[in-house]
């Protein structure tokens, strides 16, 4: 009897490593299946728009990768109640509140904001504020305008609207944003924040990013807050607290996919890479704005932003060559 118990115990001990191995293999298969299924589910839900067009004199491809990131101010899909809650008014025009270039490669990542009131040539429409390009010809005219103004050939395009931004922030459970000294109080955007770091939900984050009338820097101050919000969203979205639990990751992905529109050549893999690169922009490191020379009033266009052409060209040349971007005195 004793011998029998010994052989049985030995057999169980021999089976134990095999059970552990089988368990590990099953878990790995489930994880791979989950990841693969999630990838194809997400990829199938991407909304696309024809964002690029070939034209005579189009810039040749530079080194590295360049994205055009756009925030649309369309109110078309908003109910009267949503327009009131978001403090976006009833303007029926279609412009772009946010225009950014994301570059990465051997250098970077760099996030370059283009002021929406930048006074630049718009092909076929004379010279106007750059955000008018979208209203006049959609994504194709906007990307062409940006390419001709910067000399950069863009690789990817991604666009998000008001409500989409709110839903993405809310799917993350909100984000933390640090309001500078003096606070931010802007009746038109609804922003009403005292100074200091604070948790904001989607509506508050939109109000914070859109405020400009009470900011002494005007649109340039809004650009800085937009950069801050993009960084905050990327940092939280790529944290283990969101990426690991399916009940956190799937709602975030669903909200993001509903909010985003990309060019047909952009897939989930490219978006994931873009997100990682934006998350690498710790704080304000790597974020800047196209250098500004003056902000005159132009009849027919209103208050506009004129670039410092020599400094702007230095910046764009560095991006084309995928080298470190220069630092400019913004005072």
* Oligomeric state as shown: single chain
**Parts with pLDDT < 50 across at least 5 consecutive residues:** none
Helix fraction by DSSP (H/I, runs of at least 4): 40-55%
Q: What does the main sheet amount to?
A: 7 strands, mixed
Label the overall shape: globular
Rg estimate, integer Å: 24 Å
Strand order of the largest sheet: 1-12-7-2-3-4-13
* CATH overall fold name of the largest domain: Aminopeptidase
CATH architecture of the largest domain: 3-Layer(aba) Sandwich
Strand content: 15-25%
Separation of the first and last Cα atoms:
91 Å
Number of helices: 10
What's the CATH C level of the largest domain? Alpha Beta
Classify the secondary structure makeup into a structural class: alpha+beta
Number of domains: 2
CATH superfamily of the largest domain: LCP protein
What is the number of E strands? 17
In N-to-C order, the SSE pattern is HEEHEEEEHEHEEEEHHHHEHEEEEEH
Overall mean pLDDT stands at: 83
Q: How would you describe this protein?
A:
This protein is of the alpha+beta class and 331 residues long. It has two domains: 1-44; 50-321, 3-Layer(aba) Sandwich (Aminopeptidase). It is 45% helix and 20% strand. It has ten helices and 17 strands. The strands form six sheets. It has a seven-stranded mixed beta sheet with strand order 1-12-7-2-3-4-13, sandwiched between helices. The chain has a two-stranded antiparallel ribbon with strand order 5-6. Helix 4 (162-171) packs antiparallel against helix 8. The model has no long low-confidence stretch (mean pLDDT 83).
